[in-house]
UniProtKB/TrEMBL annotation:
PANTHER family to which the protein is assigned, alphabetical: CYSTATHIONINE BETA-SYNTHASE
Protein name: Pyridoxal-5'-phosphate-dependent protein beta subunit
Claim: Mitochondrion is one of the keywords in the record: no
Pfam families: PALP
Annotated source species: Acetonema longum DSM 6540
Essential cofactor(s): pyridoxal 5'-phosphate
A GO biological process held by the record: alpha-amino acid metabolic process
Domain Tryptophan synthase beta chain-like PALP: 58-365
UniProt-listed NCBIfam families: ornith_OrtB
CDD domains assigned to the protein according to its UniProt record, in alphabetical order: Trp-synth-beta_II
UniProt keyword terms in alphabetical order: Pyridoxal phosphate
Length: 471
């Protein structure tokens, strides 16, 4: 009889993942720290024309780019003379399952079907699960979604519950678990017992599927505004959104477009903590995922994560939960659009950043997801109050993650707060250098780390010297 203890299943993880992804990750390793990221993306995924063809088969992509003229007018009213960039949103709610996750799911499910897998499995809090279930339904495959849903009291957030219902509506079997290590253990067991494909958020198929989004942003902005986007603001959680969109922008020649990652500031809350799990009112797009995946991208359910956000960030900013709730209401009342909190995280940041940019410039926001009964501010704020969170009006600087959601009194109070990327790079290097077991990184490692940290080899060498000297 097979040993299904936690330790035994974790020990079988490399073989389970290899069988469930059809990727030999070891073939891209080169020793030391480095691995050949670009070769992995080129060989394991599909070329861009093939991805567009795959996505068109199931109605994914070609979503509209909308100009928010009333947002722009308000930003210009609040900004200084000559300031106030035009604000556009890429409306990804128009995808079949209502979010940009359909792009990454479409390629993964196609790959699973092409290679004869009987079904697909995904571990996710929801939007990606719904996208996988939707794409699997179109292609006639079975799907199982493993969802981290409850704290130990059996309470789940309205947004997570809604996402679970969406997965079931598309025909998926949904396994709802409590927060903690149970998720990954169960996920591996399901993969092993079913022989289904691992539709991970972090495979090359998943990340490459988002590149079409960056391509469309570039082409539509040129068509509507007559220029490349000066900045694209992308909600950052696990890194796939930033990585895929930025790679698509590069493919389209947008070398001068600033890639701005944006997250809700949930500093101090631990995502795997039973007590903190329901003290955050956002299930994604927050620093609880954004920071660890920037610092240690290979903490994923595959050996080498294809989402490597620090490679592509020009800036990283945060906003508060209260600011996102405010901008959600503002989008509905000024532009007649209701969309979910993940995309409105970027929109809150973009509204503030637009006021610092020239009137002839263009800022584009990825409006990543639909909204619905569980995603509206009302059920989210009610749940927060029920879990002891103070909800009130005031200045956003009074917001305290896990304790107080402070909704602005005026749109002029909304701000995008800069994260020091040099500190993030330092933390990244501190997380990877111990893998060398006290050896100094070689030339190949330095070049790899320069790409990983979106900086230069001399800059990496200086940072590494400082870290090793301090040991």
């Amino acid at each position: 009889m097979r040993d299904n203890s936690y330790q035994a299943v974790m020990a079988r993880k490399p073989e389970i993942i290899r069988q469930a992804t059809n990727i030999d990750y070891a073939g891209f390793e080169s020793g030391g720290l480095a691995f050949d990221y670009e070769r992995m993306m080129q060989q394991a995924a599909y070329d861009i024309d093939e991805m567009i063809r795959i996505q068109r088969q199931t109605g994914v992509g070609s979503t509209p780019l909308l100009e928010l003229k009333n947002f722009t007018a308000l930003a210009r009213h609040l900004a200084g003379p000559g300031k106030g960039a035009r604000i556009f949103v890429k409306d990804e709610a128009a995808n079949p399952s209502g979010s940009f996750k359909a792009r990454r799911a479409s390629v993964s499910v196609y790959h699973a079907q092409k290679h004869g897998y009987p079904g697909v499995v995904a571990a996710t809090s929801g939007n990606f699960g719904a996208a996988i279930a939707s794409q699997a339904a179109i292609r006639g495959l079975k799907s199982i979604i493993v969802q981290e849903t409850f704290d130990s009291r059996g309470l789940g957030q309205p947004e997570i519950m809604e996402k679970g219902r969406a997965c079931e509506a598309y025909g998926a079997e949904v396994l709802q678990l409590t927060v903690g290590p149970e998720l990954f253990y169960t996920f591996l067991l399901v993969l092993e017992e079913t022989g289904f494909f691992n539709a991970s958020l972090y495979t090359p198929f998943s990340i490459a599927g988002i590149e079409t989004l960056g391509l469309e942003v570039a082409a539509q902005t040129r068509q509507l505004a007559g220029r490349q986007p000066d900045a694209v603001v992308i909600t950052h959680a696990g890194g796939g959104n930033v990585t895929g969109t930025a790679r698509g922008l590069r493919r389209a020649g947008c070398v001068n477009t600033a890639v701005v990652a944006a997250s809700v500031d949930l500093s101090g809350l631990h995502m795997a903590s039973d007590t903190d799990f329901n003290r955050k009112s956002f299930t994604t797009g927050h620093t609880g995922f954004g920071m660890p995946f920037a610092i240690n991208p290979d903490r994923a359910d595959v050996p080498r994560n294809a989402a490597r956000p620090l490679r592509y960030m020009d800036r990283y900013v945060t906003v508060t939960q209260g600011e996102v709730f405010y901008i959600t209401e503002m989008l509905a009342s000024l532009e007649g659009l209701e969309r979910g909190p993940a995309g409105n995280t970027s929109l809150a940041a973009a509204f503030a950043l637009a006021q610092q940019m020239g009137r002839d410039e263009v800022i584009v926001v990825q409006e990543t997801e639909y909204t619905g009964a569980g995603k509206h501010p009302s059920p989210q704020l009610t749940f927060a109050k029920e879990n002891g969170i103070e909800v009130r009006r005031g200045h956003p600087t009074e917001n305290v993650p896990g304790k107080a959601i402070v909704i602005p009194e005026h749109p002029g109070q909304i701000a995008a707060r800069e994260v020091d990327l040099d500190k993030v790079r330092h933390s990244y290097l501190c997380s990877v250098l111990p893998k060398l077991d006290k050896e100094k990184p070689g030339c190949a490692d330095i070049e790899y780390l320069a790409a990983e940290t979106h900086t230069s080899a001399p800059a990496v060498e200086a940072l590494v010297h400082g870290i090793l000297s301090g040991r």
